[in-house]
Write a structure and sequence with these properties.
By secondary structure, the chain is an all-alpha fold. The chain contains 13 helices and no strands. It is elongated, with a radius of gyration of 23 Å.
Length: about 290
């Protein structure tokens, strides 16, 4: 009962704003066809650069205005949420899976194996992610699949370092020695005895990295190396709207605001998960109180 009451107390401290933001964007992405008032790709030149409804000349038919081709901004933001969330979830899953396994192997075996893997991590960390991504996208070609692959394989090093640090501490515990004496295979020790001790930190890291991946995808799309037109993407919308900032600011402002909200929501949730799952953070929070 005591543990249940403590867990409930921690859950009640969850960032309502962050969870609400993420929930709303997920619902919007899933039901975009039913929520969007217009098609995100249909053009209507007669309504090009219409302002939002709250400005003079605006109309309730286009709540957030239209772009230079007469496409509804709100509908494009709604459908663009699909791209950002899909890239975020899948890329984090790929990079997290790769990084965790390398971190487990590096921390558990140590020696030359650890040295080789960590040197690979150091080499990749020494190069800016954006340069690696530009090179890979240039070789593979811009597409949704390729951008997910590129982000996934360039972001694993952070997960590997964190997992390795956790493993170095966990493998010194007695239950690992007992598992070896009992004849458990290396795979079983890694999966059944060590991996559960790594999960919490990886969940927190994945949540925090989710917002970074969304910004990364938007940056690549802004440069024309992400999802290609006419598919709506927040980064592409920013790129299209930059030349109209002086007299049609809504083209870039609203997509940028959507990116900011999603990243803010993920960071709030990530901070809460860190406080809830990390014993050291929980102790620090209690100490402050």
């Amino acid at each position: 009962m005591a543990k249940s009451s403590k867990l409930w107390a921690q859950i009640k401290q969850a960032p309502v704003g962050g969870l609400t933001i993420l929930f709303l964007f997920i619902v919007v992405a899933l039901f975009a066809k039913f929520i969007a008032p217009h098609s995100p790709i249909d053009q209507d030149i007669t309504h090009a650069l219409s302002p939002p409804f709250f400005l003079e000349g605006g109309t309730w038919n286009y709540l957030l205005g239209t772009d230079e081709l007469g496409r509804d901004i709100l509908s494009r933001i709604i459908f663009g949420a699909r791209i950002s969330l899909v890239v975020g979830f899948i890329a984090v899953a790929i990079s997290g899976s790769i990084g965790v396994w390398f971190g487990l192997i590096s921390g558990y075996f140590g020696g030359k194996v650890d040295s080789v893997i960590m040197r690979l991590v150091d080499i990749q960390l020494s190069m800016p992610y954006i340069l690696i991504a530009l090179a890979l996208i240039g070789a593979l070609g811009p597409s949704l699949r390729n951008i997910i692959i590129v982000i996934g394989i360039t972001s694993w090093v952070t997960y590997a370092r964190v997992a390795r640090g956790d493993v170095l501490g966990i493998k010194e515990n007695e239950f690992v020695d007992l598992a070896k004496i009992a004849g458990c295979s290396t795979y079983r020790i890694l999966v059944r005895h060590i991996f559960p001790g790594v999960v919490n930190s990886q969940i927190v890291l994945g949540t925090l990295m989710f917002g970074r991946v969304i910004i990364f995808e938007a940056a690549l799309s802004f440069l024309g190396l992400g999802v290609q037109p006419p598919t709506p993407s927040w980064g592409t919308m920013l790129a299209d709207g930059r030349q109209y900032l002086t007299y049609a600011w809504w083209l870039a402002t609203f997509p940028g605001f959507a990116i900011m909200l999603v990243v803010l929501g993920t960071n709030l949730v990530g901070d809460w998960l860190r406080d809830m799952l990390d014993p050291k953070q929980r102790a620090a929070v209690r100490g402050k109180r």
